[in-house]
Amino acid sequence: MSLVNLSHVCSHLNNASKARLALTSINNTKLHLKLCLALQNDGLISSVVRGSRAPPPLHPILGTPSAVDESEGVEPVTQSNVASRRLWLGLKYWQSEPVLGKLTMVSKPTKRVNIDLAGLRRVIRGERSNSVEGLRSPGEALYISTDKGIMEARECVEKKVGGLVLCRVR
Amino acid sequence: MSLARPARCLFCTFSRATSAGPRVPSRQFHLSSIQLSDRKPKVPEINAPEGKTLEEVYRDLKLDDFKPYTEEEKAALKEEYTPEQIAAIEAGEAAIDPKDLHEQFRLRRDPMRLRYLDDLSSIEPGVDKHVRAPKTNSDYNATFKSDDDLMEDIVEYFVNAPEEPEPADLVRFLETNRVTHGKEENELNGHSAIAPNLLNEGETLEHMGSDIKERPRYRTPAGELTYLNPNEPTEQEKKLFQVTGYSRDYIKSLYVKDLVVRRVSNQTRLGKIPSMSVLAVAGNQRGLMGIGIGKSDEIIDACQQARARAIKNMRPVPRYEARTIFGDVKGKVGAVELELMHRPPGFGLRCQHLIFEMCRAAGIQDLAARVNRSRNPMNTVKAAYEALMSQRDPEEIARARGKKMVDVRGVYYAGVKIVPPLPKPGVAQGKP
């Protein structure tokens, strides 16, 4: 679990949304993939597709690459091509503003921040817990890496798990 | 010899074509046929206009040309003109003898003649000189100075008089000192029986005579009579009504406050030129708020400008439950960085006075603020305005993410949105 690479991903996504890009790619790791799927689940990004260094073909109707593309088909990952795989993310915009506002790391590569269930309960109520600021703005989200996968803070409270605080979305 | 030359009859050597001007024995550099000089010019002469010129009309003028209208012509005229106009035409025809017209009709050749057709019946803005109201020395608002005013003049004269006053100075002062308030020309060279005024009081060029009503007078709070109506909006106010579309009562009910008043100066080669700069905030205490800056030499004028601009700039401020803001927002202008934080009901406005006034104008009741780095008053107000306007609407966020959103507070109170009672009118009319 490299937080250095995750920090790079956060910065890259911020830059890409400021440049109003529709499609961008990040390194293919299990951590990135799970975080991106969590982001997609919350409607912050439109698509997550594992492809080669060239961007995957666009879906004829959606206009973004699709993970289950019947017409083109997604290249399966094999031992020979796994090193060249990248994650292609479709970014969303609403009224010329990026839907994925600003991604900031909470844990740093030199300081990992863990939070327990009690702390998470305070955080989602908008209070501060140790070094983790509360979620106080509409649409703010915190992503936690837990035993049950990478989840949003509110989902963690539902499932009663704590974990490593990865990043915050404003 | 060009092949393009047309073949000619051998027996036709005496025709004009053969004897016409010199044939150029040079090479032809183009493929088109040679233009022979006996041809007609391609471009015909410009045809003379069909009608006659004025000169020709004048030259060919005969006494018989001036005949009364026939019945047919009269019928044609009736289609074009009204009966009154026809009557006028006939009266004109009857008044002028055709013989006179024949003998006296001349084309004008003098330098003052008109160079265009005009019957001079109307004033045309581009061509003709404007008709202006006559200038007058009269001042109908002139009043005689009271005894106190005259005493003040005398006191001022003695204060400013030189060390050793001469009698001539005093005489000059008494002769030249004014005895009325108002226009100076009115006193020095007003209208008199010898040079009466062209127009009486209240008369204009359009309205003259005895049906002029006397202008109403109004009593000021000090008890003096003036022509100024205290209930009538000033020019500035009228302009504001026009720009904003708000009524006078509505504008009076707004919460307006001057937040920052500064004396500023412009350094020129002539020295420092001071003026006043005012930042005002305006709001209806129900979600509309605006800020405006006014600058003028006079503080009162600057305040009026700033208030009018603040009212003009009023924009809706998003309010959660009509009491606080949506989420925490940040604003930055210059070195001022501030945060506004939403708070639970009954918390109050725990913030500095500038932000307090802005929130009061906008109708926000629960808020906390923190101003970091610089605390420059003007930039604080601007940054707070920016922060309040940068609030994000949760409905919009939900729509952008494609998620369903529920306000949990609303659900807690049986799905009813809580809206606090509107502020009392007495509070809304609070004026600085």
Automatic annotation (TrEMBL), chain A:
Similarity comment: family membership: Belongs to the universal ribosomal protein uS8 family.
* Pfam families on file: Ribosomal_S8
Fetch the InterPro entries from UniProt: Ribosomal_uS8, Ribosomal_uS8_sf
Ordered alphabetically, the record's keywords are: Ribonucleoprotein, Ribosomal protein
Task: Write down what this protein is called.
Answer: 40S ribosomal protein S8
Question: What GO molecular function annotation could you give as one example from this UniProt entry?
Answer: structural constituent of ribosome
Q: What biological-process terms (Gene Ontology) are attached?
A: translation
Q: Which domain of life is it from?
A: Eukaryota
UniProt cross-references to PANTHER family, sorted A to Z: 40S RIBOSOMAL PROTEIN S15A (PTHR11758)
Q: Which organism is it from?
A: Aspergillus ibericus CBS 121593
UniProtKB/TrEMBL annotation, chain B:
Origin, by domain of life? Eukaryota
Does the record bear Mitochondrion in its keywords? yes
Which Pfam family, giving just one, matches this sequence? Ribosomal_S5_C
Q: Name one GO cellular component term.
A: mitochondrial small ribosomal subunit
- Protein transport: present as a keyword of the record? no
Localization per Swiss-Prot or TrEMBL: Mitochondrion
InterPro entries linked = Ribosomal_Su5_D2-typ_SF (IPR020568), Ribosomal_uS5 (IPR000851), Ribosomal_uS5_C (IPR005324), Ribosomal_uS5_N (IPR013810), Ribsml_uS5_D2-typ_fold_subgr (IPR014721)
Residue ranges constituting the S5 DRBM domain according to the UniProt record: 254-317
Supply one GO BP term.
translation
Its main localization is mitochondrion
Q: Which GO terms describe its molecular function?
A: RNA binding; structural constituent of ribosome
Q: Which UniProt keywords apply?
A: Mitochondrion, Ribonucleoprotein, Ribosomal protein
| Role of this protein | Component of the mitochondrial ribosome (mitoribosome), a dedicated translation machinery responsible for the synthesis of mitochondrial genome-encoded proteins, including at least some of the essential transmembrane subunits of the mitochondrial respiratory chain. The mitoribosomes are attached to the mitochondrial inner membrane and translation products are cotranslationally integrated into the membrane.
Family from the record:
Belongs to the universal ribosomal protein uS5 family.
Q: Which PANTHER family does the annotation name? A: MITOCHONDRIAL RIBOSOMAL PROTEIN S5
Protein name, as recorded:
Small ribosomal subunit protein uS5m
- Protein species of origin: Aspergillus ibericus CBS 121593
